[in-house]
């Protein structure tokens, strides 16, 4: 079983059941988007709780990672630590763009973790607040 797929069968058979999960994930499993990549020598740490609510699983917790970005002014690579809250709902019949698929007795945490980390990244990363950019005169 892939490290981002979690079996929740024990929770689905007990109303209001909860389970705490702590993971250390290889960044390669989450990938990146465009020029944004997780730093491969830093594991993604995840601490979340699963809770059975009705016929769904609520995932609530925190993910922390280090992304490598490019400074939007000088184009130098920079590392950006990020902590992201993760609060998602997994259902057998998900609502597209709002909830995630509960596949039998398993949930796949890869998408929700990656999505929530990406939402915390700055739209224009800077290596430092006073970065002058490529041109020392005009920026």
Main β-sheet description: 6 strands, mixed
User: How many E strands?
Assistant: 8
Low-confidence stretches: none
Spatial gap, N to C terminus: 50 Å
Order of helices and strands: EHEEEEEEEH
> What portion of the residues fall into strands of 2 or more residues?
35-45%
| Helix content range | 10-25%
Mean pLDDT: 86
**Class per helix and strand makeup:** mainly beta
The Rg value, from CA coordinates, equals 18 Å
Overall body shape:
elongated
Q: Count up the domains.
A: 1
Number of helices: 2
Task: Describe, in plain words, how this protein is organized in 3D.
- Strands 2, 3, 4, 5, 6 and 7 form a 6-stranded mixed sheet that branches.
- 10% of the residues lie in helices and 42% in strands.
- The model has no long low-confidence stretch (mean pLDDT 86).
- With 139 residues, it is mostly beta strands.
- It has helices spanning 9-12, 110-119, and strands at residues 5-7, 18-25, 37-38, 44-53, 56-70, 77-91, 100-101, 106-108.
- The chain has one domain.
- The protein is elongated, with a radius of gyration of 18 Å.
- The N and C termini lie far apart (50 Å).
Keywords:
elongated; 10% helix; 42% strand; 8 strands; six-stranded mixed β-sheet; two-stranded antiparallel sheet; mainly beta; 139 residues
Summarize the structure.
The chain has 139 residues and is mainly beta. It is built from two helices and eight strands; from the N terminus they run E-H-E-E-E-E-E-E-E-H.
Write the layout of secondary structure elements.
Layout: E1 5-7, H1 9-12, E2 18-25, E3 37-38, E4 44-53, E5 56-70, E6 77-91, E7 100-101, E8 106-108, H2 110-119
Parallel strand pairs: 6-7
Antiparallel strand pairs: 1-8, 2-4, 3-5, 4-5, 5-6
């Amino acid at each position: 079983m892939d490290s981002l797929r979690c079996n929740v069968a024990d929770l689905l058979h007990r109303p209001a059941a909860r389970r705490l999960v702590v993971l250390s994930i290889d960044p390669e499993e989450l990938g990146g988007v465009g020029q944004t990549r997780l730093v491969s020598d830093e594991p993604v740490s995840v601490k979340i709780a699963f809770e059975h609510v009705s016929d769904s699983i609520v995932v609530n917790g925190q993910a922390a990672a280090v992304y490598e970005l490019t400074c939007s002014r000088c184009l130098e690579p920079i590392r950006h630590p990020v902590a992201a809250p993760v609060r998602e709902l997994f259902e057998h019949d998900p609502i597209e763009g709002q909830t995630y698929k509960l596949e039998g007795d398993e949930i796949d945490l890869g998408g929700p973790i990656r999505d929530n980390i990406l939402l915390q990244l700055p739209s224009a990363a800077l290596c430092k607040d006073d970065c002058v950019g490529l041109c020392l005169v005009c920026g």
